Amino acid sequence: MSQSLSAAGTTAGTVPDLALTGDLSRPARLTVPDLFSRPQHESDVSFECATSGIRHHRFTGPLLHDVLVSAGPRFDLTRRKDRLRFLIAVSGADGHHALLSWAEIDPGFGRARVLLAASIDGTRLDHAGPQLVLPQDRCGARHISGINAVRVDGGYGSWE
User: Is the pTM of this model over 0.90?
Assistant: First the structure.
C-alpha cells in the first residue's frame, strides 16, 4: 500500500461515493454512511508490507458479497455455477485497481470475508471513502483506499 490507509483523496467538504455498476439489476451510488446502515463486520488484519513491515489494523464495514447481492447481480440463481463467470473490478480514487472473482466472495465457494470498510481503527472514513479489505491476503497489495467504483461483469458466458 503506497498511501496511508486513511489518507483522504477528496476535496474538503465533499463526501465521496462509490458507484456499483455492471451486470446488476439495481446499480447504486453508496457513501460511507450508506455502508454503516448495513450489517457491520469487524476484522483485525495484519498486512506484510515490503516497504513498511507488518501493519496491524481493525476494519469495520459490510461484506462486499452482501452489498453486491443487494444490488442484484444478473446471474441465473437456478444454475449454481453461473455465478462463477462473474468478475468484480474495484477502483480507487488514487488509481489503484483490484480484480476478484465472484467465487472468491461467495459463501457457497471461497467464502472470503472481503469488507467494504467504513472505518479503520475506530476512525470513520466518511471523507476518505471506503476501503477494500481482504483479510486473508498476507500482503496488502489488493487493499484499495478511497474506492470510487465497483463493477460486476459476467460477460464471459461463452469462450468458443
Answer: no
